[in-house]
Amino acid sequence: MSARNSSRIALDWQLRYVSRLAAGPVPAYATSNVRVAWQSASGVEIAVMGQDLHHAHHLEWRDGSAAVEIKRSALVTLTLRR
Known about the structure:
This protein has 82 residues and is mainly β. Helix content is 0%, strand content 65%. The two termini are 27 Å apart. The relative contact order is 0.23.
């Protein structure tokens, strides 16, 4: 979902669901990513993003004793457009 208006602010939201993986076993999970950005008339964009927001971390893959977990994260970007 994306929303834009004349104030040069953008809001993007992504919700995703991943079903249980039998080859792990890895449980099902749902999570969201959110991005809010502001763009100036001169082409400067500042954005704040949050990724994997529903839980502090979730299991992506497990192979024997090795496991891959993804942690919640945040990011700020500055983009210059000419």
